[in-house]
Amino acid sequence: MFGIINGCGLAPAHHSAWTAHYCGLCLALKIHHGPPARLTVNGDAVLLSLLCEAQSPARFPRQRLRCPFRRFRSVNIISPDTPGLRFAAAVSVLMGAARIDDHIADRETFLQYLPGFFTRLSAQWHRSGSRAVRQLAFNPASIFAEPAELARRERQPGRPFLFYAHPTETAGAAVCAHTATLAGRPENRPQLTQVGRMYGRIIYLLDSYKDYHRDRQTGRFNALAQSVAPEHLPSSAMALFQQAVHELRQAFSVLRLSFPDPVTP
């Protein structure tokens, strides 16, 4: 499980709504991409399903099941066949495949000891996720282009942080904007494009900040290290973060939502 959002700190009613989408994503991954795909469940993809329901004219259907990961307690979940969860699941496996590829290339984890197995798993998830997003009228090239463009930009040292963040912003923008299409709310695409762009910037910023000192020690590329000295790191990173959050909130505040309050009925 990965992602920067985990649903902690929510009020009980909102946490129940979060759990309905989160557990629905887990089941959708199993049904549409196979049991191993459950390893890719993550909070960032859950947001896609939440955005779809918030914009849709009616609440997504729910169902109850007993979850083995929750000691077989009964859980109220979103139906795994809703377009929002199918899209979230497809994006999850594509993100999982990309993460496997990165770890194998970096030789940083145990994945390097079984490269053949994990390479095949990554290829399977790439195929499965691509097929699923195409069925939902989304072009997977919007996601696949990110690693190549990111690598191209990282070969150009000394550029500003936002130069390196652009590919991740673009991928986030495309994914979030497509929730408007799935929900039948095309008027929300411009705002959701900006929401996704700023969310992508935040993801890339947090990753760069977390690895800043280690990357400087090992000589690996780090976007913040290209333009920010160690003594200015906290203030510069905070300024970038606050600006991104401000722009994200501005764009989100003008969205036209059917259900702005995600309370499970």
What report would you give on this structure?
The protein has 265 residues and is mostly helical. Helix content is 63%, strand content 5%. The chain is built from 9 helices and 2 strands; from the N terminus they run ααββααααααα. The model has no long low-confidence stretch (mean pLDDT 89).
Rg for CA atoms: 19 Å
Q: Give a count of the beta strands, DSSP E runs of length 2 or more.
A: 2
- End-to-end Cα distance, whole Å, is 27 Å
- Number of continuous helical runs: 9
Question: Biggest sheet, strands in spatial order?
Answer: 1-2
Global shape = globular
Q: Kindly report the average pLDDT value.
A: 89
Which stretches are low in confidence, meaning pLDDT under 50 for 5 or more residues running?
none
What's the helix-strand series?
HHEEHHHHHHH
| % residues in beta strands | under 5%
Major sheet characteristics: 2 strands, antiparallel
Secondary-structure-based class equals mainly alpha
